[in-house]
Write a structure and sequence with these properties.
It is a single chain. This protein has about 140 residues and is mostly helical. It is about 90% helix and about 0% strand. It contains four helices and no strands.
């Protein structure tokens, strides 16, 4: 019984180390994404083509996704909370896809991404509702 507790403690420690490595890597990615965002925004002019605006918008949403992932790893501890965080990140990614496909005129992709957002939002609602009922 004691050896199992020692093993569990060791495994939990390894998981914590991996989480720290992931958070540090995500923070480095966020810094790079912000640098590229600033660089892309510096080149935007009122006469810029829509493609340049799409690149800037995509960069903004990439930063948001990375920050949301950092929040997920730093705030959450239980599996269900991780699941909620990843659903939230999925919603952000799909909202990005909706915006990009709408800008490029791909209505079918925009509708599919909208359906995905709806499904993920319903899943998040169901998880939060079941947690509220359980308390």
């Amino acid at each position: 019984m004691a050896s199992r507790q020692v093993f569990n403690k060791y495994v939990n420690r390894v998981i914590e180390v991996f989480e720290v490595v992931i958070v540090v890597a995500l923070l480095v990615l966020a810094i790079y994404a912000i640098v590229f965002l600033v660089r892309d925004m510096a080149g935007i002019k009122p006469s810029s083509p829509i493609e340049e605006l799409r690149v800037v918008f995509s960069s903004v949403l990439a930063v948001i996704v990375i920050v949301e992932l950092v929040k997920t790893f730093t705030v959450s501890r239980s599996g269900e909370e991780y699941f909620e965080g990843f659903i939230e990140v999925g919603i952000i990614i799909l909202v990005r896809e909706i915006a990009v496909s709408t800008i490029s005129g791909e209505i079918l992709y925009s509708l599919m991404a909208s359906g995905g957002v709806l499904l993920l939002a319903l899943a998040l609602f169901a998880i939060k509702r079941s947690r509220a009922i359980g308390k």
